[in-house]
Amino acid sequence: MKYEKIIQSLKHNGYKVLFFFETSTAAAEYVDANINGYTVGFGDSATLASMKLAELLSKHNSVVDPGKYSGFEFKEIAQKALLTDVFFTSVNGAAETGELVNIDGTGNRVAGSLFGHKKVIFVFGTNKIEPTLEKAIWRARNIAAPQNVKRFGYKNPCAVKGDRCYNCSSPDRICNTLNIHLKKMKGVDAEVIIIDESLGM
Q: Where in the chain are the domains?
């Protein structure tokens, strides 16, 4: 299999359940069939939004999705998402050696992936995969972050110039923390869903 290396590396790093899907539709159907009767929180993610997972799961789960809010409302909803049974997030970079990389501006997405939930589910497309941790970090900083800044409509140098991270001090900077999952966090049932499509930033 083309992505066998990252699959085996993630399993070695403690991710107990791992699925590979050809399409985001198939992945969404799997999630919809297997997450039922829970409180479900979401990190702000273009990947998850494109799959319409919140809409699907809200039919038979209690869903908390801060992605549609801003300002004080966003903070309030994001805090509630941290108290759910299941937390969904994506990644900005994934190394074939089994590490998962995320950059965050407010910290809710990273916080939700680290502690407090019965299950954390990482969902990402194969466009996020890089051969090494160093390249996954580079991707997160120089590809994903500038695209997310542009998506939010901010005028940070990375979005205006569209080429790389400038390590700026802009008031709308979203690169305030860089988190690397070297292994699965203790005490959390963590699942990785990889989709053979280009998804998110």
A: 4-195
Lookup: tokens for 158 = 């990375």
CATH number corresponding to 4-195: 3.40.50.10420
18 burial level (CB within 10 Å; 0-12, 13-18, 19+):
middle
Rounded Cα–Cα distance for residues 128 and 91 (Å): 7
Q: Across all residues in the chain, what is the average pLDDT?
A: 94
Q: Identify whether the C-beta of residue 53 lies closer than 8 Å to the C-beta of residue 88.
A: yes
Question: Within 13 Å, how many C-alpha atoms sit on residue 146's CB side?
Answer: 17
CA 187 – CA 170 distance, rounded (Å): 37
| Nearest alpha-carbon partner for 117 in 192, 63, 14, 41 | 41
Q: Two tokens at 122?
A: 């990482």
- Which stretch of 11-15, 143-147, 179-183 has the lowest confidence by average pLDDT? 143-147
Count Cα atoms within 13 angstroms, Cβ side, for 173: 12
Amino acid at 120: V
Q: What is the pLDDT of residues 35-64, one digit of tens each?
A: 999 999 999 899 999 999 999 999 999 999
Query: Model pTM?
Result: 0.95
